Amino acid sequence: MGSHDADRLLFIGDVVGRPGRRLLGRVLAGLRDELQATLVVANGENVAGGVGITRKCAEELFSAGVDVITTGNHVWDKREARTYLSEEPRVLRPMNYPPGTPGRGFGTYETVRGTEVLVVNLHGRVFIDTDFDCPFRAFEHLFREFSGAARMPVLVDFHAEATSEKVSMGYAFDGRATAILGTHTHVQTNDARILPQGTAYVTDVGMTGPAEGVIGVAADDVIERFYSQLPGRFKVAAGPTMLNAAVVNLDASHRYAQSIELVNYRYD
C-alpha cells in the first residue's frame, strides 16, 4: 500500500444506478478505513437510473462517505441537475463547458488531515460529444488564473472516450497535476503509473455498480440496439456488483504523487 504518512486520495470510478449507490452505502465506510483514504471523490454522472444525477442520488453518495462528486456528458440528463449543481459546491461538472453553463468545474476541498486539494473536472472531445471547449486550453487557463493550482495537490477527473486524448492529457500536464484519472468507458485499464515528472495517471478508473451486463446496462438491451439500430430504453443490469477505484498516495510535500494503486473488488 505504500507510506501512510501523507494524504491518500480515493477516486471511485463511474457509479452506476441504484446498484452502485447501494454498494457504496454498504462498503465505503469500511473501505475508506481499510485504505486510510483522507479524501473520497466519485464520478456520479450515471448515478440516477444509469444516466444523470439528482439531488436525492447525490445525497446518497454523500451519506455513504463520498466528499466530492464529478460528472461528465450525462450530467444534464436529469433536468433538476441545472438547479442542483448551481447550489451544491461538492458536485462538479466538466470545466470546459461553454461560459454560462450552470455549476462549477473545479473546487478546493479539505482532506481529514487538513490538506486543501484542488479537484478538477474536464471533458474530452474525441469520439464523444463535441459541445465542449478545448480541455487542454481550459486546464492551461486554470493554472494561469488560479494561483493555488501551483502549490496544492491537483486531482483531475478527465471524462473522455479516446485513449490517445487521455494519455496526451497526462503527458501535457505531467508535473503540474498531481493525478489525472480517466473516466467514461467504465472499463478499468491496466496502465496505472507515475509519469516522469511525478503525476499519477490511469486511462480509465472503471465503474462501480453492476458487475455483469454491458458497462452497467442489461446486456439484452444493448445487444438489441446493435441488431436493430433503433433507440430504446436501457435498464441498469442486475446481479453481482463491483467497485473500481484508484488510490493516489501523496508524497511528503503533499504536491506530487508517490504511488497509484488500482482497486477492483467484486461483491456477490
What does this structure look like?
The chain is an alpha/beta fold. The protein has a single domain, classed as 4-Layer Sandwich (Purple Acid Phosphatase, chain A, domain 2). Helices cover 25% and strands 26% of the residues. α4 links the parallel β6 and β7.
Offer a concise description of the structure.
With 268 residues, the chain is an alpha/beta fold. It has a single domain, classed as 4-Layer Sandwich (Purple Acid Phosphatase, chain A, domain 2), CATH 3.60.21.
Counting H and I runs of at least 4 residues, what is the number of helices?
6
Coarse shape: globular
Helices and strands: which structural class? alpha/beta
| Strand percent estimate | 25-35%
Tell me the helix content: 25-40%
Give the total of beta strands.
13
CATH top level assignment: Alpha Beta
Radius of gyration, taken over Cα atoms and rounded to an integer in Å:
17 Å
Tally of domains: 1
CATH architecture: 4-Layer Sandwich
- Poorly predicted segments: none
Taken in chain order, the helices and strands follow as EEHEHEHEEHEHEEEEHEE
Largest sheet: 7 strands, mixed
CATH homologous superfamily - what is it?
Metallo-dependent phosphatases
What's the mean pLDDT score?
94
CATH topology: Purple Acid Phosphatase, chain A, domain 2
Terminal-residue CA separation: 25 Å
